[in-house]
Amino acid sequence: MASLMRSFYLLILLFFYGCAQQESVRVKRLTTEAYSPSRYVEILNKAPKRRYLKIAELDIRGAEGSPKTELVGALSQKARELGAEALILEDRSVPIGNPFIMNTSGGMYDTNLNRYIPAYHAVAIRYMEE
Description:
By secondary structure, the chain is an alpha+beta fold. The chain has a single domain (22-127), classed as Translation Initiation Factor IF3 (2-Layer Sandwich). The protein is built from two helices and nine strands; from the N terminus they run H-E-E-E-H-E-E-E-E-E-E. Strands 1-3-9-4-2 form a five-stranded mixed beta sheet, with helices on one face. Strands 5-8 form a two-stranded antiparallel sheet.
């Protein structure tokens, strides 16, 4: 009986671990050079004016309603592990469902833009010395 309960608890633990690991970062390395992990990663919305080297492309996609901070945090963590100093972030979220819904009170259409699947693409970079 005790081994059956132990197996049950192990199964429950594995289920919740799988749910927590839902958002995984896909990495496409752009260089063979290996860098030590960085301490901080700057998040940018556009390419910097300084010269830089692209070291990897990162992609993440979350479930509907996943917070942006959670997904960007996962990208940032992976970039730190790769030795990046900054991330150039691009929002590639996808709306789901019909963007127009029938307004039952007047027969007109309303927009339904609140439902989307969050997705982000980022380029991990290191600054070059000038």
